Amino acid sequence: MRKFGIAILSIVFLISAARGQTKAPDTTAKPTGPTHTLDKIAGVVGSSIILQSDIELKYASYLAQGNQANPEIKCQILQGLLTQKLLAQQAVIDSIDVKDDEVDADVDRRMRGMIQRAGGEDRLEQFLGRSVIQYKDEIRPDMKEELVAQKMQQKITTDVNTTPEDVKKFFNRIPKDSLPTFNKEVEVGEIVFNPKLNYSEKEAYKLKSEDLLKRVKAGEDFGALARLYSQDPVSAVQGGDLGFNDRTTFVKEFTAWAFKLKAGEYSPVFETDFGFHFLQVIERRGEQVHVRHILIVPVTTQASLDRAKAKADSVYDQLTHNKLIDFSTAAAYYSDNKDTKYNGGMMLNADNVDTRTTYIPTDRLDPQVALVVDTMKVGSISKPQLFTGQDGKKSYKILYLKSTTNAHKANLELDYPKIKEYATNDKINRTVSEWFQKKRKQTFIKIDPQYQSCPMLKGWSTPPTIAEVKP
């Protein structure tokens, strides 16, 4: 029941190696940049070459994420690059391309993530052995090719469709003694009540933002003030710089100002769900905008928590004692969680967002939610309780246990959405694999002897002709 084929894995590896893992680097370790040796050709795909320096640059990025040195990773990097070249060359034939602003936005997103995980720009530059600006220039062509390759792979699989009959056949092919066991799952609804500050409670934070804006306009360095005062943990270390993004990236209030202003202009202080901001537009390219901002986050007061609890208690009474409203309607009307309120309050399985399944393994629930749900009966509604999010913010929640499914062997009746996902991925895997098998036979591929012993590269090289074989 493998989910992805070699082509998909290769592209995923390229992305994860460059964008990094969640693991932070060992700050006690000596920074290790790429080895500067005489460059050579590590691989050839048709008319494209892969240089050893291409591999070393990605390996340096891999190390910059805090991963341990592992020469075998270079085999995976080369496999990913070979895959990328094949896809990109077909994309040229099929007239598939990406816009420059798409590439710029992706490069900026990558760099923000790498800087954050490396523990700062200086630390990242030590690991890479080059400046961030130089690194961005070096990876930009590869990033463009990578995005083109992704679009090509999407085109290859665009017509893949999984019917109920496909799902049934896929399930029946699985040996009965190999059927997976699914953990206990629950369907849980929530109504969230976030504490909201009143005008007087928020005024001090708004005034602080306005004071910072005045200082910027008076000539103080925007980046320095952002590093000192901004409470956006991702952009503050980069002087408030958010890079290039499109309209879908930001909340509506932020988007409105970001795409209204001209390059160099400042917004007034404005409020979003995150707090008080002001921003400056640095550059605009079509539907991409490059901005920087400073965020000031108001601190929750006990009075605002008390108001949230009072509202939660009132809604709980309407649900249970007076029964004036059902849970789904109450969630849509009262909940402050925009991700669940329009879904009847039902939480979605974060591991399967694409399928929008509401069945969540109990070991994947927020431990605070799991603790409450464990004491509930199916169909019951919990009293409002105080929860603390991963960001430290507090809110009151009312929970509803819609259903529970005990641990069991996979079966079509209970697990159709999961099995359909497996069947679809299997079909995608076979479609991509068949495409690659065909293209590899039609394309000249040569791999440097240094990598010919890599297990995952076995069979990639084009067999030599009789004339090429030495006597």
What does this molecule look like?
- Helix 7 crosses helix 14 (412-442).
- Residues 1-36 have low confidence and may be disordered.
- The two termini are 46 Å apart.
- With 471 residues, the protein is an alpha+beta fold.
- It is built from 14 helices and 13 strands.
- It folds into 3 domains: 6-160 and 428-468, Orthogonal Bundle (Triger factor/SurA peptide-binding fold); 182-195 and 301-409, Chitinase A, domain 3 (Roll); 199-296, Chitinase A, domain 3 (Roll), CATH 3.10.50.
- The chain has a 4-stranded antiparallel sheet with strand order 9-4-11-10. A 4-stranded antiparallel sheet has the order 5-8-7-6, sandwiched between helices. Strands 2-1-13 form a 3-stranded antiparallel sheet.
Structure at a glance:
This protein has helices spanning 6-19, 52-64, 73-93, 100-118, 121-128, 132-156, 164-173, 199-217, 222-229, 252-258, 302-320, 327-334, 367-373, 412-442; strands spanning 41-45, 48-51, 181-182, 185-193, 241-245, 270-272, 275-285, 288-296, 360-361, 385-388, 394-405, 408-409, 445-447.
Write the layout of secondary structure elements.
Layout: H1 6-19, E1 41-45, E2 48-51, H2 52-64, H3 73-93, H4 100-118, H5 121-128, H6 132-156, H7 164-173, E3 181-182, E4 185-193, H8 199-217, H9 222-229, E5 241-245, H10 252-258, E6 270-272, E7 275-285, E8 288-296, H11 302-320, H12 327-334, E9 360-361, H13 367-373, E10 385-388, E11 394-405, E12 408-409, H14 412-442, E13 445-447
Antiparallel strand pairs: 1-2, 1-13, 3-12, 4-9, 4-11, 5-8, 6-7, 7-8, 10-11
Helix pairs in contact: 1-2, 1-3, 2-3, 3-6, 4-6, 7-14
